[in-house]
Amino acid sequence: MKKFWCLFFIFWPLVAALSFIVAPARGWWFPGPAASPLGSQIDDLFYLILVIVSVTFVLVMAAMGYAVWRASHNTEKSNFTHGSHSLEVIWTIVPAGILLFIALYQLDVWAQYRVKGRFPKGVLTAPIAEVTARQFEWRMRYPAPDRKFANEADVQKWLRQPEPGDLHSVNDLHVPTGTPVLIYLRTQDVQHSFFVPMLRVKQDAVPGLVIPVWFEAINEAKNVNPQLQGVVHEWVCAELCGWGHYKMKARVVSQPAPVFRKYLADLQREELDDGAKGAAPVAVVPGRDADLSVAGKQPVGGQPAVNE
Amino acid sequence: MSTLNPASQPALVDHAHAHGHHHTQSFISKYVFSTDHKVIGIQFLFTTLLMLMVGGALALGVRWQLAFPWESMPIFGKVFAKDGGQISPDFYTMLFTMHATVMIFLVIIPVLAGAFGNFLIPLQIGADDMAFPVLNMLSYWFMWPAIFCFGMSFHAEGGAAAAGWTSYPVLAGLKEAAPGSGAGQTWWLVGVTFAGVSSMMGSINYMTTIINMRAPGMTLFRMPLTIWSMFITAILQSFALPVLTAAGFMQLFDREFGFCFFRPAGLIINNAAPTIGGGQTLLWQHLFWFYSHPAVYIMLLPAMGMVSDMLACMCRKPIFGYKPMVYSMAAIAGLGFIVWGHHMFTSGMNPALGMTFMISTIMIALPSAIKTFNWIGTIWGGRIQFNTITLNCLGFVAMFVVGGLSGIFMAAVPVDIYIHDTYFIVAHFHYVLFGATLFGVFGGIHFWFPKMFGRMMNDTVGKIHFVLSFIGFNCTFFPMHLLGVAGMPRRYADPYMHPYLEHLLPMNQFMTISAIVMGFAQFLLLGNFLISIFVGPKCGRNPWHANGLEWSAPSPPGHGNFDVPPVCYRGPYEYSSPLAGDEDYLMQTKYLPPAERKKEADAHFHAEHDV
Fold it and tell me: Is B356 on the interface with A (CB under 8 A)?
């Protein structure tokens, strides 16, 4: 029976280690390699920790298993000791060093991801879209294709108030591939979270805040959807937002820049279509035609629409 | 009693004796509204075991939906769910919210601090009762309003609270936001407040008792680690809990009286009028986690202490590194106050906070590691006895290692960007709170049962219970790590509508079947527990040949605990001491003649200074 119990405890770490080895092959692993450069760095950090942790786990379990094995075959009185000062020092300093290394090694990727000063150059003043979460969908507002932002204050102005040339879509965010893009994330009602597993990006949408999120999608040829000429990244909500939390299903489509521009142009044509045959789409100059028909679109963030 | 002069002992024995005869109490004051810490502890134990089954049933509801989405659930679904047993999405959100609520506020916190804390503190420090017996009684009876409120939550219009146990506003803060955010959420907030009041009464009592009522000779560094852990937990509890209570009232005022602590202006929820206010939802997260992260240690430290006691006894060996064990518990508690932000890495708070909270969080793994090494050091060179208690303790250590190591992933903030709010987190905290704490509690029940009822529990049934629970537990929760890496978010009623998660259904079915096995295995524990109270073989004062003061009292101890007021001569872990002669234990109360004591002191000096 002693043997049984010793083996019982040694068996489980083996199963655990084994399961991590077979998991990737069975699909119980990341949904594909990261489709963004920062995502790859996150994956690397994950694997680094996985290696450190696995080695630690196996060593600790082996030590425990061996200690139990020895202790179960001991027929003498136990070894009467209250501890060892030098051992305590060793197993305080060594893990402290390893842990501190892990902590400091993470800082750079985090800074790139979240610290505005480390964002890719120019990305803050060239937002691809404003993404607004609501129960239970995502709403996109792209600036008009020819809208240029002079500075951050200009972006803030655009965020405060919808502009007539803005383009809208639901649950479908298109971004150009191969270049850092930035969205401004907000919510119209409760808290949500922007989570695109393949891009390894997650950010809560917090009531009352507008949070910039940047990412860069790299298209891998084998994943390209021929119809869209881009890669579809599934996009879900990661913060409980009510009964329909699970069904905030959306997608991020990363396309080559020309295809992306065509997508926006199509979207614009669709939005400005007034049904008149053969009429060319009207170019909208932001700020001038404030009373255009797009006022029917829901204003975002709860501010009353300017409708003179 | 701490000021007792040992010289006056004989007089006291007479007094205690006479004392016992004066107390003929009615049934109600003896077993119901009792001020006796042992009765209160046992009341807590019964209540929490009952609630464990309730929380487990709720968990099985969650698991059922994940394995067999939208299919009617047998038995439980028929009773609770609408529409012929099918779990609707809002019912699902309610299930996991109430599962967490019941398990945290009605099982884990009260079973550790309430049941074991109450039962063990006076016995292990050699006091005749708690410092404030009436307060102690109230701390138990304030649990029931909490249970009542959580129960009423289920009957509220729209169903029970369904915004997660974290109750993030605005979802929980606005009645229109979700069906469960109506009256159900109000009941929930009131219930949590009552549970908090109950804990607070206990904490004040524990601190006072431990500081003031130790038996003669019971210096701080002769206290069993259980007492240290209860002491540190009580301090944590009393400094963290007021923040949660205040936050709860703030949310209550937001909801009921139109305050706007957590409510920004201009939100349009379910087509209601835009909200008015200028509040911050992140404020709630900060306040909530300022309590709820230390609460994680409130839910763990006492189990660590108890396992240290049991492991030393079952290995017949002094605990390895007693003082490092104490200091690391204190370090966990201290650091525990400055790590709450790791729950908020993706919340949009200042990124500089993300960095500082990451470093403090990763460093809290250090005292945990030290404790683990010391437990292994305790086993090393011991003479281990494989009974239910040992197995549960080894289970505790093994599961704690898994839970601790998986915590490093989410403490590392860039990695947390990906695994935050996925099943990886669910795996992690179940390994700590269930894998570690509950196995510690199972061990504790078997270990102190003889002291509670004067009888032994059945060891064979205990072992079967352990094996089934341990296998069931690992098969349920280990795969959750993999689900998390696969990107499966938490709190999804139907993850399989997302193509990238479709293939995870068979694994979820396997986990659910394991969870059912584990759930039903708990009936073995309950059966063993209840039947042994009446038919278990009777035991003497010290069935485990342990050292603590509690083992010098009769089993079960009478009113006033000790027939001979104990005097403590040494630390609690002098197992296999060469001074013990033929025995392999040396009780804290055992008197040795001066010459022997000199040897003991020398040996201790050598051990301390590593000579």
Answer: no
What CATH homologous superfamily does B29-270 map to?
Answer: Cytochrome c oxidase-like, subunit I domain (1.20.210.10)
Q: In chain A, where are the structural domains located?
A: 2-71+88-117, 125-274
**Beta strand A231-237 pairing with A250-255:** antiparallel
Q: Do A238 and B422 touch (CB under 8 A)?
A: yes
For residue A22, count CB atoms less than 10 angstroms from its CB and return exposed for 0-12, middle for 13-18, buried for 19 or more: exposed
pLDDT digits (tens, 9 = 90+) for B551-575: 999 999 998 899 999 999 999 999 9
Residues 453-472 of B with CB under 8 A from A: 467
**Segment A30-48, tens digit of pLDDT:** 999 999 999 999 999 999 9
Rg (CA), chain B: 25
Contact list in B for residue A192 (CB cut-off 8 A) is none
Residue in the structure block whose two tokens are 């299919």: B71
Instruction: Supply the mean pLDDT for chain B.
Output: 91
Q: Where are the alpha helices (DSSP H) in B178-280?
A: 183-212, 225-257
B195 contact partners, CB below 8 Å, separation of at least 6: B105, B106, B109, B110, B142, B143, B146
Q: Which among B90, B578, B610 is the nearest to A80, CB-wise? A: B578
Angle at which helices B301-315 and B225-257 pack, to 10 degrees? 160
B379/A200 Cβ within 8 A: no
The residues near B420 (Cβ < 8 Å, ≥ 6 apart) are: A202, A238, B345, B346, B410
Which sign does the torsion angle of CA B357, B363, B367, B371 carry? Answer: positive
> Regarding the domain delimited by A125-274, which CATH topology (the fold level of the hierarchy) does it fall under?
Immunoglobulin-like (2.60.40)
The predicted model gives B54-70 an average pLDDT of 94
Asked if residue B397 lies in contact with residue B375, where contact means CB atoms within 8 angstroms, the answer is yes
ipTM summary value? 0.91
Does the distance separating the beta carbons of B269 and A249 come in below 8 Å?
Answer: no
* DSSP summary character for residue B72: P
Give the separation between CA B170 and CA B160, rounded to whole angstroms: 17
Q: What is the pLDDT of residues B3-19, one digit of tens each?
A: 444 444 444 444 444 44
Domain positions in chain B are 29-270, 540-611
pLDDT in tens, B400-412: 999 999 999 999 9
CB contact under 8 A, B346 and A193: yes
| Cross-strand partners of A251 | A172, A234
Q: Kindly report the backbone phi and psi dihedral angles of residue A205, in degrees, each rounded to the nearest multiple of 5, phi listed first.
A: -100, 115
SS3 (DSSP) at B133: helix
Comparing CB atoms, the residue among B177, B351, B384 nearest residue A190 is: B177
Residues of A in contact with B311 (CB under 8 A): none
Q: Please report the residues numbered 397 through 426 in chain B whose beta carbons come closer than 8 angstroms to any beta carbon of chain A.
A: 397-398, 401-402, 405-406, 408-409, 411-415, 417-418, 420-422
For range A257-267, the mean pLDDT: 95
